[in-house]
Amino acid sequence: MNRKLTIRQKKSLSGVLFIMPWLLGFLFLFAVPLFQSLQFSFSQLKVNPLGYTMEFVGFHNYKEALWVNADFNRILTDSVIGMIVNVPLILFFSLFSATLVNQKYWGRGLVRAIFFLPVILASGAVAAAEAGSLMNQLMISVTSGGASDIGASTGQLMSSRELGDFLVESGISPTFVNYLLNAVDQIYQIISNSGVQILIFLAGLQSISGSLYEVAKIEGATGYQMFWKITFPLVSPLILTNVIYTIIDSFSDNQMTRIIYESAFKSLNFGLSSAMVWMYSIVVGIILAIIGYLVSRKVFYND
Amino acid sequence: MIQFEKQKTWVWVIFRTLLIIGICYAILYPILLKLSVAFKSQEDIYVPNIIWLPHHVTLTNLKYAFDIMNYPVTLLHTFLLSSSTMILQTVAAALAGYGFARLSFRGSSFLFILVIMTILIPPQTLMVPLYLHFKEFDVLGLVQLFTGKSGINLINTYWPALVMSMTANGLKSGLYIYIFRQFFKGMPKEIEEAALIDGCGVFRTFFRVMLPNAVPALVTVMLFAFVWQWNDTFMTATFMNQSHVMSMEITMLGSNTEKTLAALLGGDPNAKIDPRYLSMIVDSGILLAIAPLIILYLFVQRFFVESVERTGVVG
């Protein structure tokens, strides 16, 4: 029987076999739950020892999340704004670090190892515990000039006020200065969120053939020109990948996910939680679509 | 002219070195801080001019954290859980990735879009249905059919994590499938053809020829799978919030430490726990929790960093 199949048929048959574990998982652990979750968001769900009962309530849960729940709106806007502020910073920082790590110098291996350390450490439990650590804040207040007021210096590695005053004095727009200062204050958060992005950019930089730079050098191009005319266009597809990854990552663990979790397992309001998560997913989806569209128009493809 | 060029290079080298040192310091800062805190004694935190080097070196903080976290048991459990999900996820994702990259069939590109969808949709969306699903786990009603009971309760066991890894639908599995697909796509077709001519079937080609060549992708995915499971709070809190794994212990560390310290004060309601001391113990606990990861990373780091260049996460 098996002998009668052509190679092509055999290949597609084994292809089905290879992805079978994933496909089964997808159906039972993704597609079905996804549908159920949509269903739950329109129902009042009651869990009892024999299982659960559902009662259709229309848009009640959505209304409750939007107008009754005290935190939902605020946290949703906060996390969206936080994302819009941080994504460009993370992107810039990771491209910059990737170019740094890609150059040849003594001790590069060690530097690379340190730069990828955040991939390991900055996630989930550790990051959460880190953010709440009193010791961190204490140290900061000690190192930034002995201010004993812990509340005033939450989570900054160094004091940047003087620098800010200086920049505003020299005539740079205060909005921009504020953005920069904010970036400096969040440097640790930005660094710790850019591990995977550095990795992706680095892989991209490695794939650019060296002969392009040689040619440019012979033609007399400066380093600045080489970066903007060669490096940047060639890594630009990765900017899209990284933007999307950063957005998803910034939404994967934040205050929003915490209130979704709490409304399900602390208040046992499964319907409300599902409604929240659906609105949240839709917002994330819209942002991804808009940014993906805007960025992909600028992206340069070599083929 | 050449002189000028040389000076410019030197300025850049110095600037770059300073910059790199600065960033490395910022990355290492929390770890250094924890190391310093872990060995400080309680009296040292009140002296304003002791910043990094403790005057009274002590192991008390670490000992408290060690006991509160029930460290040996927790470490063993976390290690077993992370390594088993790592192996299952890697195998399932590698199979799927290879299937999508090389064994395309009708509709496989559509299915791959679904893989991307699993990356894009927040996992919280599935949280409640999956919880209910695992609370009465029953594949196609088989359990009910044979025993008459309504499914098995898998909550607070390691099964949810294992089942999800086995089917490459666990933590960030979509990303792993994507990495494998990109990698296998980049491998030369000739290897596969040669294996075929030598009489290897598809499965033998995969296990004997393709997998041994896929070490960079394997290292990357295994490291990610291990570490992200180790640190994961979302899935762990949803499906096994009573199990003794590292991420749960860290989450509970603050309140557990508070209880222990309160008990040490003899249950006197008027005696106040020093928040700084509490924080010291919590920080020591975090250090204990991440220490195995750092040690692991020291060993695989060279391998990982090299492999990154050849993984082609990019495509």
From TrEMBL, chain A:
The chain crosses the membrane at residues 12-35, 80-101, 113-135, 187-205, 226-248, 275-295. Residues 76-299 form the ABC transmembrane type-1 domain. It is found in: Cell membrane. It is a multi-pass membrane protein. Keywords: Cell membrane, Membrane, Transmembrane, Transmembrane helix, Transport. PROSITE patterns: ABC_TM1. Pfam families: BPD_transp_1. It comes from the Bacteria. The keyword Membrane applies. InterPro entries: MetI-like, MetI-like_sf, UgpAE/MalFG_permease. Belongs to the binding-protein-dependent transport system permease family. This is Sugar ABC transporter permease.
